[in-house]
Amino acid sequence: MAADTREDTSPKSSESGSSAEASSARKSETYETFNKRLPNANVLPGGTTNTAGGRPKEVSLVEAVKTVQLEDFRNIHKLPCVRDSLLTGILSGFGLGGLRAVLGAPLPRASNWAVGGFCISAFTMYEYCHYQRRREKDGMKRAVELLDRKKIEREREKKMEVAREERRKAKEEADKLAEEEERKKKSKGWKFW
To answer: Hey, CA dihedral for 186, 188, 192, 193, is it positive or negative?
Structure first.
């Protein structure tokens, strides 16, 4: 019968030292095989390294805050959709908070409703505005593609018309030549009169 795998495979005292070394080497190989760090399966090849072979440096919150400048806040109203969404948020927050205060809610609770109404309506309006801008941009792309296609068709029609005109002129020339040859053939013969 086959030997039981649970049996002790350690070398007996009667065995030579070389088999003990082989056994310990085999155990260390097994240990190294199972304790290998496998690469992360979720990382794309070369996704965490740059072309020079290094890793990108970690970005901290302090470095991110350093990139924000006062000029960004001064020009925030110039960004697309921000002005409309902020105005909508202010009006809806004022209306919702005022309505809650008039209906008898305590002032802190009415203020919470006002801030919540501002945030929700401003965010919703901002996203809706961007959705409209994307649709408009897609429509403009389609219109430009359509204009390009029509321009190509017009150019093709012009080329076809030029080719037709050239064929017509060539046919007229061929007809004239054929008529002249026919006249020459008729006039070559002897006439009695």
So the answer is: positive
